[in-house]
């Protein structure tokens, strides 16, 4: 069996690798794999399967996969099609587009280690570029290429090091580094199976002499009675004022057990409860816009709407109402907002309506939190993703709605590195691929969106007036040279 693999390089092609017999069951489309590529080892993605090696019409040896890195596919067929489109439309490598859809820090990377041999430097000592390298290696006989380049002024090229290797002055070896990010776990404690019956804690205390050990047993029993059958080890140690050595001694005696549990990292952990959502009745323009969007949602029909609403016209309320219709169908949604608008207040407005069904993906969140959110979205634990441009690539299935708020914002354009995509255009294409609705909202729509609406590609929805505040005090003053002027008593956002 062979597989076609894409690599995170600016190359417009796939590479064929042989699947060792031990990896046949795991090497399925959508999983990441570790592959040899020249002298390097790279993290690639399987995009297709092929015939056995003997059936290939090639005159070279097909290299084998080194490892399959995922327990489940990281990419669905829909995400493979979307990243393929991004690569074609924005003229970059398919592997580069696929890498943008994965959380950073998950690649398995190779490190080059440089070691100085005992061979004399000879004429190389006076070489303009090699001399400083050899001098540094005298002080640091074994180092990494990155560290060598950091210490030696001037450009330390691999070509130079290869020449020194051929002359026997250095050796270059490739080692694999671990991914920069992984699941975070925390140690929890529980009684061993033989001591989980009523009265077991008293029996254990009778068998123990140490004061601290008895305190741990009492604390563990007390926490279990309060609810958490497997409390955190740190909490038990704090309450019992016990050390790790005390915990370990009880584990060694077979009285308690330690179990590792995953900790989900989320920026929402630091936010207070959002409270109950406000009960707003939609105004006529809002209701008309929602009715048009809801009709497309109900029909499960692709359609892009340009929601042109002045500031304060209540576009967010329309997004929320439309998203409720989508979730009622068992489908999912993506809400894109400019980074500057991704504030706790914005997040809390959605949380008030949708609770913990939301994953928030701000660009400044830690790699660990982003990795946790990505896995939870891929596994279907969240139904909504909210974030800046990269959230358009969130691994949600069964999409029903994508909203691009403030669609004119330049921050939706990725300038560097590749893929240099525009999240608004990717949102439209992804909605099309999924038979979903895309809503582009703005008080000042971009020229492209206005023209697409004029040409009939998008459906234009107008919300030309501000929604009165909760007190209802909004008065029309009259037409002015710059447009209509209103006096509004604003008591809330």
> Any idea what the radius of gyration is?
30 Å
| N-end to C-end Cα span | 60 Å
Note the main sheet: 7 strands, parallel
Strand order of the largest sheet: 13-14-12-15-16-11-17
Strand content: 15-25%
Secondary structure class reads alpha/beta
Number of strands: 19
What would you call the shape? Answer: globular
Q: What share of the residues lie within helices?
A: 25-40%
Number of helices: 15
Describe this structure in words.
By secondary structure, this protein is an alpha/beta fold. It is built from 15 helices and 19 strands. The protein has a 7-stranded parallel sheet with strand order 13-14-12-15-16-11-17, sandwiched between helices. It has a 5-stranded antiparallel sheet with strand order 2-1-4-3-5. Helix 14 links the parallel strand 15 and strand 16. It starts with a strand and ends in a 5-residue tail after the last strand. Residues 471-493 have low confidence and may be disordered.
What labels would you give this structure?
single chain, 493 residues, alpha/beta, five-stranded antiparallel sheet, 32% helix, globular, disordered C terminus
């Amino acid at each position: 069996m062979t597989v076609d693999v894409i690599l995170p390089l600016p190359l417009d092609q796939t590479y064929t690798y042989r699947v060792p017999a031990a990896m046949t069951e795991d090497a399925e489309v959508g999983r990441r794999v570790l592959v040899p590529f020249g002298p390097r080892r790279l993290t690639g993605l399987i995009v297709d399967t092929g015939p056995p090696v003997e059936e290939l019409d090639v005159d070279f040896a097909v290299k084998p996969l080194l490892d399959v890195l995922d327990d489940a596919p990281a990419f669905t067929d829909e995400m493979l099609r979307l990243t393929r489109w991004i690569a074609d439309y924005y003229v970059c490598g398919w592997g580069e587009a696929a890498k943008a859809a994965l959380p950073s820090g998950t690649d398995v990377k190779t490190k080059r280690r440089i070691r100085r041999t005992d061979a004399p430097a000879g004429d190389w000592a006076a070489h303009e570029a090699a001399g400083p390298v050899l001098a540094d290696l005298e002080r640091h006989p074994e180092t990494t290429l990155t560290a060598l380049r950091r210490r030696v002024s001037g450009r330390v090229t691999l070509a130079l090091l290869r020449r020194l290797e051929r002359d026997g002055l250095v050796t270059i070896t490739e080692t694999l580094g671990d991914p920069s990010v992984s699941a975070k776990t925390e140690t929890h404690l529980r009684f061993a199976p033989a001591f989980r019956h009523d009265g077991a804690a008293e029996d254990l205390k009778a068998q123990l002499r140490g004061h601290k050990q008895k305190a741990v047993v009492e604390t563990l029993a007390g926490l279990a009675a309060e609810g958490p059958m497997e409390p955190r080890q740190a909490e038990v140690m704090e309450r019992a004022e016990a050390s790790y050595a005390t915990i370990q001694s009880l584990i060694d005696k077979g009285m308690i057990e330690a179990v590792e549990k995953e900790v989900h990292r989320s920026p929402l952990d630091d936010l207070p409860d959002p409270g109950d959502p406000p009960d707003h009745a939609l105004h006529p323009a809002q209701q008309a816009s929602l009715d048009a969007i809801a009709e497309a949602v109900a029909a499960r029909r692709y359609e892009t709407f340009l929601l042109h609403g002045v500031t304060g016209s209540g576009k967010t309320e329309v997004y929320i109402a439309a998203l409720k219709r989508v979730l009622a169908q068992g489908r999912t949604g993506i809400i894109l907002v400019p980074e500057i608008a991704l504030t706790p207040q914005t997040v809390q407005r959605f949380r008030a309506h949708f609770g913990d069904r939301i994953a928030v993906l701000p660009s400044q969140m830690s790699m660990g939190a982003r990795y946790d959110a990505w896995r939870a979205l891929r596994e279907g634990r969240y139904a909504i993703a909210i974030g800046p441009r990269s959230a358009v690539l969130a691994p949600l299935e069964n999409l029903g709605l994508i909203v691009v708020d403030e669609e004119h914002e330049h921050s939706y354009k990725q300038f560097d590195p590749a893929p240099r995509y525009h999240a608004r255009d990717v949102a439209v294409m992804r909605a099309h691929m999924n038979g979903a609705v895309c809503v582009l909202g703005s008080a000042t729509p971009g020229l492209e969106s206005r023209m697409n609406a004029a040409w009939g590609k998008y459906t234009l929805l107008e919300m030309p007036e501000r929604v009165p505040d909760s007190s209802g005090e909004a008065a029309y003053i009259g037409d002015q040279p710059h447009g209509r002027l209103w006096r509004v008593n604003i008591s809330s956002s």
